[in-house]
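Why should sequence recovery work at all? Because a backbone constrains its sequence more than one might expect. Tight turns favour small or flexible residues, buried strands favour hydrophobic ones, and helices have their own preferences. The token representation captures these environments compactly. In the example below, the structure is given first.
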């Protein structure tokens, strides 16, 4: 009788350990996914900042000159064919703009110029 109770206790302990491991492993996966979404949101915000600057320039008269700043980080931004693309370690985010502009926004100081000949970045 005591041997059976010990065996049942060991089986119960094994089962509870397995449940604990499953719960712990799933929470680690969720944390990674959460970090990935947070990074994506941060770079989407950078993309929207660039888009806002371009749209603001296009809404103004063709004598527009403005300096804006992009935060430091590990990403590359590029503009071509009506699209802003921000590449980062987990992937890429894109924004679409109403004008065909080409350019390579850099981290730090950027200048946007809109005049009679077109829209220029940097």
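From this structural description, the recovered sequence reads:
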């Amino acid at each position: 009788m005591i041997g059976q109770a010990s065996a049942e206790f060991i089986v119960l302990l094994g089962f509870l350990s397995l449940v604990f491991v499953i719960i712990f492993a799933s929470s680690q996966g969720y944390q990674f996914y959460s970090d990935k979404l947070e990074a994506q949101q941060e770079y989407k915000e950078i993309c929207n900042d660039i888009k806002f600057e371009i749209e603001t320039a296009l809404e103004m008269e063709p004598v527009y000159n403005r300096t804006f700043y992009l935060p430091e980080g590990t990403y590359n931004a590029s503009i071509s064919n009506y699209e802003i693309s921000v590449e980062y370690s987990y992937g890429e985010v894109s924004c679409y703009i109403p004008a065909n502009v080409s350019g390579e926004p850099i981290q730090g100081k950027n200048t946007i110029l809109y005049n009679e000949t077109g829209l220029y970045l940097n």
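A few observations help interpret the result. The chain has a mean pLDDT of 86.
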